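Write out the 3D structure for:
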Amino acid sequence: VFFAAEAGAFRAAGLALAMLGHLGVTTNSHTWAHRAGSTSRRFDDALAFLTGGLVSGISFVFWHDKHNRRHHGSPNVAGVDPDHDFWPFLALTETERARADVGLRAWHRVQWLAFPLLLAAMFARMRLEGVCFAFRRARAAEPEIAALARFDLAVLAVSYAAWWGLPLAFGSLADALILNLAREVFLSYALFAIFAPAHLPHDAVFLARRVEGDFALHQTATSLDYRVGRLAGFFLSGLQYQIEHHLVPGLSHPRYAELEP
């Protein structure tokens, strides 16, 4: 519809539907990346490469390290959890503000003004970090790790070529620019709106170190559930049930509501 329609309203509607579909695929890829979609690890990995790598352009090996290992291993732990680390661009706690020099403290007092602009680039930054991480892994000494990273880079190359090549084939350069810019900005804001309520509000505890010996306490103290309607829940793929997800990350997201009680 975006490429074929002549009326601006229809083109805008087509673009909006495409972005909503993209969001649903991206949040669903989170389940496959946790190998929680089926009983087959290979099938889950294949769907993770298809949805997260080919469609969303997010590195498979990077996401497993950033999200599955570091975030789930130490949620909201300063200096460890990458989803909590915005330093030095943003200071989220008084401890971070206290460690800043005079210039940074002045910046942090007005950081809220620049935050919407910084946030618009979140998705692009994550994808760039993923490519750099995969390139480093591709040079690893272990053959299996290097081979997986090289395959990951090949999938990402196809993804980037498709996201620019297909719009140029069916539309114009302006269409390709609009589509890709809308993708970067929309997914940045949408994914932040989904993940931030689960770990960044005041009720989600920030920690200087891991809670050793009590897995459930650490996961529940640093994670929050929140309510959404049925339609929004369809696009979130269970991400509103962050407590359940952090306690049992290997459980498929349609089952979180059953686990909540």
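The chain is about 65% helix and 0% strand.
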